[in-house]
Amino acid sequence: MGRKRPSSAGGKVSSAVRHARNRAKNTTTKEAPASIEYQYSPQGKAALNAAPAWFLPAMRIALQPMERRLDAIERRLGAIERSLDRLLRTCALSYNQRAGDGSHTPFEMVAFCDGSDPTAAPYNLPLLSSWAAVDNLSSSRCTIYFQGYFPNQPVPRLIATRRKKILIAIGYLHT
């Protein structure tokens, strides 16, 4: 009497196992090495694991409601980030107005109009922690700060004018 083959739970055999058994029965000894090599190659594994033609379109349709919700969440998060940036900028300006000249209580960083941090890449400018820090800015750094705080205005020729505008932009001077 023949030996019984062990099977998976409930006596059911997966289609992949049936396929492998049928292939083994129909393969000659000369074809076996090539067949085994193909089954374990990336192409062979991909062929065994390939999704049916209907699967990708069905998944796209099934995921559309989730994608719409994620898009809505991203839009709301963007609006929250913009509001938070404005709030942080307002808080820094208010703080700097009350910090004197910044020598005892350093100024807070005030983001540029576009929300970017002037002390981070790509600008890597020094922190304007006091009136003296603004006064010690080089002409080129003063220009970069001016353009960040006043993007739609022409750059004043005099460095003293640029420094004064920067001090207004960070909350030290009032207009």
General description of the model:
The protein is mainly α and 175 residues long. The chain is 55% helix and 0% strand. It has 7 helices and no strands. Helix 6 crosses helix 7. The radius of gyration is 34 Å and the shape is elongated. 11% of the residues are buried.
Structure in a nutshell:
By secondary structure, the chain is mainly alpha-helical. It has one domain (53-175).
Key descriptive features of the protein:
mainly alpha, 7 helices, 0% strand, Mug135-like_C, Mug135-like C-terminal domain-containing protein
- By DSSP (H or I, 4+ residues per run), the number of helices equals 7
Helix percent reads 55-70%
Main sheet record: none
Separation of the first and last Cα atoms: 103 Å
Q: How would you describe the shape?
A: elongated
Query: Beta fraction of the residues?
Result: under 5%
Number of strands: 0
Please identify the structural class as seen in this structure.
mainly alpha
Unreliable residue stretches: 6-10
H/E element sequence: HHHHHHH
Computed Rg? 34 Å
What number of structural domains do the residues give?
A: 1
- Residue-averaged pLDDT: 84
Pfam families: Mug135_C
Protein name: Mug135-like C-terminal domain-containing protein
Region (Disordered): 1-31
InterPro entries: Mug135-like_C (IPR013902)
List the helices and strands and how they pair.
Blueprint: H1 15-25, H2 32-39, H3 42-49, H4 55-97, H5 131-135, H6 139-149, H7 159-169
Helix pairs in contact: 6-7
Region (Disordered): 1-31
Family: Belongs to the UPF0612 family.
InterPro entries: Mug135-like_C
